[in-house]
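Progress against Task 2.4 (sequence-to-structure conversion) is shown through the following example record, which the project officer requested during the mid-term review.
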Amino acid sequence: MGTGLKLSKLPFIDCVQAVEILQNTKKDVAFIDVRNRKTYVQQFAFGAVHCSLDRLKFVVADLVPNKKTSLIIIGATHSVIPKVISILNKKKFSNYYFIKNNYRAWAKAKLPMWAGEFTLSKAFGEWIEKTGSIRNIYPKELHRLHQKKPNTFLQIDARPKQEYEKFTLPFSKQCSGGELPAYLESNHTNKDLIVHCAGRTRSIVAYQTLLDFNIKNKKFVLNGGTQNWVLHGLDRAYQCKSDLRQHKINFIQDMKLAKKIITKFKLPYIKQLSSVVGVHAFSIKSEIIQNKPMKLWKNVNATTLIQNTDKFIASTSTKIYIYSEIPTSAVFAVLWLRRMGYQAVWHIDRPHLKLKKSFCRKEFIDQTYFFPKRHLGKKSDAKGYLNWEHGLIPTLQKWGCRSPWISMKSTNTQGITHPVHKLYQSIKL
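Structure tokens generated for the chain above:
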């Protein structure tokens, strides 16, 4: 290898040992794939979070804040392993393992693999629809409403401002899902509500959120979002400007609603955290109010955190603390993370500024490699992507994991288990 490291001295484990670690619900595990992203999205081990070698030194401490977490590394060739070890040692990790023979061994053992980007979050979106009470409206039907009754409904694009302003649908207003409860509570309307995103996940999450927060309006999800709209030969709208900042929030009312939700779903909370060492700490970025980023807390849009969870979190059991100046936005994130199997807690009071820990500030924009032209009007990519989403839950169940998450009809978010542990427990070696 030319590095001074002997193969016999390296922390190799075989696939059986890796699965045994992944099966253990008492272990905090991070399963990390260090190949380049273009290769990763084509096929990867179930539960493996992407973090290529060129990103590892910048983000591994954010993805895995607890140094005691067990790291399972896959995709590292013999030439890459010394570099990975050097990075992990510098970051004070000591409990890490490399899967011997990588994907050749994983495929030979016929262990679960799938493809795509942010796949676990997307599969979770499909689970919401499967176990919830999602009511769909379809593009042609919505188009007729646009023509005949345009003033009878409020159509909401549940994506963040930046995505909305690139493209959206005619008549759409912008409000990302995490701020929907506050937005509708303070700006009440009796109109029917239609929520959409560019595809499926964020609109489904938004719809279920309206149910969770007891928003009484008649409501629908636009099935397949802007992609399905284009597939039906309809035109999108471009360069629309979000007016979300023009809306005001009643913070007293919002706090009351947030407390109702923590009671309803038995959500844990804390008044003040003394340290953020060894935990995830997220401050929810608002698009309604001008809130400044907080030192030592990772600033992120709530909807983005749920949509792209494995961009921010690799470990299965590390505590996650959530703060927002808009209480219902924090509770939104906590509820959805717990439903996904993460140990999320609402941090009620504004965090003290003098905390121990610093986060990496380097941001990465992920190139889209999976059906890359799905938002550019290419119908084959849009259709392929939507079909892929529809197939995620059947794939999980084919592997033997019948209930990867709790049902949306359940209000009990206690005793949760991460789906990575659940699925590997169903694997017979």
